[in-house]
Amino acid sequence: MLHTDNPKVATLIKGCLVNDRNSQKELYYLLRGFAMKICYRYTNAQEESEEIVNEGFVKLFKNIHQFDQQRQDDMLLSLKGWFKRILVNTCIDHYRKHHASVSGHLLTYESETIPDKSETGIDVLSYKEIIEAVRSLSPAYRTVFNLFVIEGMSHEEISRQLGISVGASKSNLSKARDNLRKLLLNKNHYNIYVSPQ
Questions:
Q1: Where in the chain is the domain with CATH 1.10.10.10?
Q2: Residue limits of the RNA polymerase sigma-70 region domain (predicted)?
Q3: Which of 144, 177, 142 is nearest to 158 (CA)?
Q4: What are the start and end residues of each CATH 1.10.1740.10 domain in the chain?
């Protein structure tokens, strides 16, 4: 059974395929909130998130002919999955362009042996508190954390995408988790455990 949004989404996609401005505008407003949530995790400024979102939409409209409308029954869900990959890649490109001079830290024994804390406290944090903590990380830490923890990339994939060594990716993730733990502990006085890789 087709999702109720599919006829509308299919019509918007057809319009976008012929560069119909009204279809592009409707699709933009349909997906903007979704796109902002993804890009917001990779930046520390609203304007930067909006810039990446807009760049992502330009890529979406330019490449809409590559979207497979028959991939799954729920066309909106399928479109979001396809667009998410565009957005994450746009975030990676943005990181490379603006933070290329930020090198990964050397992998050290200390950075890989952060002691575990008990798992109490994280559940009472709000989504907003966690995202704000992630956004306060340095660009290198934030990007590696998002790609590994949220997007599920391996260190090898992150290494290729960002042009850093696997060791630097592991070190940045370890430091990001350590910094997050400290930020959240200081903010909320909770005993927080951020799972090891």
A1: 109-188
A2: 32-98
A3: 144
A4: 6-99
CATH architecture of structural domain 109-188? Orthogonal Bundle (1.10)
Which tokens in the block code for residue 47?
């304007």
With 0-12 / 13-18 / 19 or more C-beta atoms within 10 angstroms meaning exposed / middle / buried, residue 67 is: middle
Q: What is the pLDDT of residues 33-73, one digit of tens each?
A: 999 999 988 887 888 889 999 999 999 999 999 998 887 77
d(CA 182, CA 83): 34
Q: Residue 48, exposed/middle/buried by CB under 10 A (0-12, 13-18, 19+)? A: middle
122-170: pLDDT as tens digits: 444 566 777 788 888 889 999 999 999 888 899 999 999 998 999 999 9
